[in-house]
Amino acid sequence: MAALLRRYGAGARWYDVLSGERWVYRAGREAGIRLLDPRPGDVVIDLGCGTGLNFPALIAAVGPTGRVIGVDRSADMLSVARRRIATAGWHDTVTLVEADAATLDPAVLRAAAGGRGADAVFSTYALSVIPERAEAWRRATAAVRAGGRAGVVDMQRPRGRWRVLEPLALLACATGGADIDAHPWRLLERDAADPPRVARAERKGGHLVAVAAALAPSVTA
Ligand SMILES: C[S@@+](CC[C@H](N)C(=O)[O-])C[C@H]1O[C@@H](n2cnc3c(N)ncnc32)[C@H](O)[C@@H]1O
């Protein structure tokens, strides 16, 4: 566990450059935010937000009356996120919560959302890194209001002619401590209010999977 945490420790300042964001992973987060479709005024929880790479698109969508709540347990990743917020002047729009998502009390997130449930939870490339992902997911969705939405973007083994890149995908996942076979979007498929209306997109030969849906009332606040 400590080894995993170290991966998002001192190296956090290099994460945006070395994580393959530009060539690979940005395509997944863009697809995920499009499917989640946050609205002006929404409060969105970014679970395992890391350095805040989702913030620009989320903030553009929720606007000045909305809010993004970034949750991460790595102080070093959050310190990069904090610099991003300061540079962009997002102090009024983003709240950061330093916590282990697998033990975080959903009441803390509801309080950060202004005392009501958040409108959505979004998680990119984080649930595959969290061994207790089902518990982290349960706690995050419990902070979403009834009728709220969720989006998950994560990785799987590439398919078809892209399979030649599987060793590279495995290396990227091993470096980041991610389980490429975790398929955490299945938690959202399980908890969707209306399974036939789950939206899904794949990018980079199926290596990146984005899923979004309205949550079932039984799992929300
Ligand atoms: C691969 S990074 C993804 C960061 C960001 N979501 C993105 O798309 O770039 C995984 C993040 O999950 C965070 N993380 C890992 N385990 C966690 C836990 N139990 N609770 C909260 N955050 C966790 C790490 O600190 C790291 O910032």
Automatic annotation (TrEMBL):
Pfam families, alphabetized: Methyltransf_25 (PF13649)
SUPFAM superfamilies: S-adenosyl-L-methionine-dependent methyltransferases (SSF53335)
InterPro entries: Methyltransf_25 (IPR041698), SAM-dependent_MTases_sf (IPR029063)
Keyword Transferase: yes
UniProt keywords, alphabetically: Methyltransferase, Transferase, Ubiquinone
Classification via Gene3D superfamilies: Vaccinia Virus protein VP39
GO molecular function, one term: methyltransferase activity
Domain Methyltransferase as annotated: residue spans: 44-148
Keyword Mitochondrion: no
Single Gene Ontology BP annotation: methylation
Protein name per Swiss-Prot or TrEMBL: Ubiquinone biosynthesis protein
Source organism (scientific name): Microbacterium testaceum
